[in-house]
Amino acid sequence: MENVYLNRNFLCIDLKSFFASCECIDKNLDPFKTPLVVANPNQGSGAITLAVTPYLKTLEVKSRGRLFEIPKHIKYMIAKPRMNLYIKKSKEVVSVYLKYVSIEDIHIYSIDECFLDVTDYLKMYKKTDYELALDILKDVRETTGLYATCGIGPNMLLAKISMDIEAKHNNDFIAKWTYDDIPTKLWNISPLSKMWGIGPRMEKNLNKLGIYSVKDLAFYDRNKLKNKFGVIGTEIWNHANGIDLSRIHDYQKTTDKSYSHSQVLFKDYDGNNIKIIIKEMIDVIAVRMRDNKKLSSVIGFGIGYSKSVGGGFYHSIKLDNPTDNTDIIFDTCLMIFDKFYEDLPIRKVSISCSGLQDKIGVQLNIFESINDLKKTENINKTVDEINNKYGKNSLLKASSLLPDSTIIERNKKVGGHSA
To answer: Rounded to whole angstroms, how far apart are CA atoms 21 and 97?
Structure first.
């Protein structure tokens, strides 16, 4: 195999019990001694616990549960979510990171988690990546009052997984994995849903193939995974083998033109019925790209949660081959969704296709045939022509008739186009 391994120095830093710790710090309380839960008290005992303090975690109280699931003998206080406070504290933490590296070497993964590429700074600081991580975590604690865990790896994947799996169990909250740790640490991860990027749905699909551990996945036929799951199959096979060529700049926001679509939903959706909305929105964007003969190499996807919860996420993935194929874009959005969705009520979906280039030919990979691509393009062209001539609701997919679909009403109002 060609050289598919990065050898850089990435840190993945996560703020411990972030929402709950912010509430404690704001109230001059110690999160390691205080039984505090972040939840909306107006929702009663069924309210979702968005976060719990490290102290409650020692009592085996889990985040993302329900208030009624907390054992009755445990006494606790409830803090209503305050996103403005959490955003303010997150910015304070990023300001600490900027003391050590430039903004170009930081990827803000979520409100409480960041990647830092410290490769080009170690010689200047005359420190190892581990020593620099110690300094940064200490600075975060002294400056903001927040505690953090850190994973270190030669690529972003191993940095993230070492943080998720091991760092929280170490006394200094730091774990470092190298490529030598793949057989002894990465491959031992089980169940599969503990692996970054594999959600419960994908875990069930892999179990049906006889894949139950990361080692099983690493030794499975890569081509079979590609054929069954598309780009997701290639991605999870690479990750199971410790392969990740991502660099921080791949995630930097681009200023080039993009085709985007954002929709505020009229009711709460969840991880099951939201797929209808995602598919419909991608269909809208793909039509616009085909009309303008454009292909996209960067797919962005985001979710906004209900006001009762607050927050959400937005992330992007760079594709190896630019595309206007709805199935590939859909698979990519689902990959992001499965990584970041937290089983909370959804009220907003955002999708963008950027990294645009002109469609001047057909680019194949070894898993595609020219006949299949031509067939797909001819179908799309015919559907586009009919809908353009007779109206956007002339030809619809069967899923558009389901109660959770919004495409018919949106087509009536705006012709299906939204930026």
So the answer is: 19
